[in-house]
Each structure stands twice: as structure tokens, then as C-alpha cells.
Amino acid sequence: MSAEALSPVTSTTSGIDAEQFRAIFRAHPAGVAVVTLHDGHRPVGFTATSVISVSAEPPLVAFSVSTGSSSWPALSASRQVVINFLADDQASLSARFAASGVDRFADGGWRPLPSGVPVLDGCSGWIEAAIHSRLPAADSRIVLVEAMAAWGTGRQPLVYRDRSYHKLIEYEI
User: Fold this and answer.
1) Quick one: which H or E segment has residue 19?
2) Residue 116: which of 168, 156, 158, 79 has the closest Cα?
3) Angle CA(162)–CA(103)–CA(85) in degrees, nearest 5?
4) Cis status, amide bond into 112, omega within 30 of 0
5) Residue/partner pairs of 97-101 with CB below 8 Å, 24 or more apart
6) How far apart are CA 144 and CA 61, in angstroms?
7) Distance between alpha carbon 150 and the CA centroid of its chain, in Å?
8) Whole-model pTM?
9) What would the pLDDT profile of 32-60 be if each residue is shown by its tens digit?
10) Which among 139, 123, 140, 149 is positioned nearest to 61, based on CA atoms?
11) Distance between CA 138 and CA 8 in Å, rounded?
12) pLDDT (tens digit, 9 = 90+) per residue, 114-159?
């Protein structure tokens, strides 16, 4: 990896201001996931709409997280995560894992995998992954992980767009 790839992204020379940038991404739909991990004492998790497939060979996935997130200290030290892809009836679960100052696991609906990392019940699928790297990007980190196990149900995914949740409908061409 080049030194340039490891340099943090801290500023921009574009003419787009932050509000314009946010507006563009509010209009862009994204699948909803909850990233879970175990910090050695308790389960930790947060909602993520930034999950992307990077490569199938090897199976790499990435997501971003703010270093100001309450989950960042645990994630910065963790070696494994589970990316739980939420089903279209799990909007309340997404909201719970996006909320601050609550015990996100108190209502149950999860179980530990043999690795100890929590997996959420009822998801459309999940990927258990080993953390490969954490790349600095402004006040966030792009976390690159390698999938070790995956499971899917075929359930419809939860989608987030313009500050609200949506279900997909089939569209035939």
C-alpha cells in the first residue's frame, strides 16, 4: 500500500459545502446494517449505512465510522466484527443502535457466535469478519474487514433514504 493511501483525508478543494454534500447523500438510498462486536466485557454495536463490498476474492467489506462515536474506542481495539444486514421490518432495531446513551442490547434479540461476537436475530443476513485495517479519513475511519463466515435468509433489506426507512419493491423492465 502506498504512503499516499495511508495519509488521512482532512480537507477538500472542491466548491461543495458540507450542507450540499449531505443533501446529495440524503437522496441516495443505502442498505442498513448494524455492526456488532464484543469489547471483552460487553457487546457493542452501531447502525451503519456505509457498508460496501470491496472484493469477492478475497472477500473484503468496508464501512466507515466516526471517531467521535461511542462505539469507536471498542472498535479501535477489536479484532472481529459482525455486519448484520437488517431486514425491512427492523427499522426500530436500526433506530435503537443509532441512539446515544442507551443499552442497545438490553431488549435481547441477539446471541453470541462461538467467537463471542454478537449476531442479531431476524436479519436478512450477516457476515462475521476479521478486521484487516482502519484507514483515517477526516474525523472518521474506513474499516476494512475480511469475511470469515456469512449467512443469509433471502429476506428483503431495510433501506434508508432522506432521513426515513423504506422497503424495496420489485420493478420489472
Assistant:
1) helix 18-26
2) 79
3) 45
4) no
5) 97/34, 97/45, 97/46, 97/47, 98/46, 98/47, 100/70
6) 6
7) 15
8) 0.89
9) 999 999 999 999 999 999 999 999 999 99
10) 149
11) 6
12) 999 999 999 999 999 999 999 999 999 999 999 999 999 999 999 9
- Calpha distance 66→167 (Å, rounded): 27
Which residue type occupies 85? F
The C-alpha cell that represents 100 in the structure block: 446515544
Q: Is the pLDDT of residue 11 over 80?
A: no
- pLDDT at position 4: 46
Give the position of cell 457466535.
113
Please report which residue ranges of 27-103 form alpha helices under DSSP H. 72-77, 91-98
Domains of the chain, first to last: 39-162 (2.30.110.10)
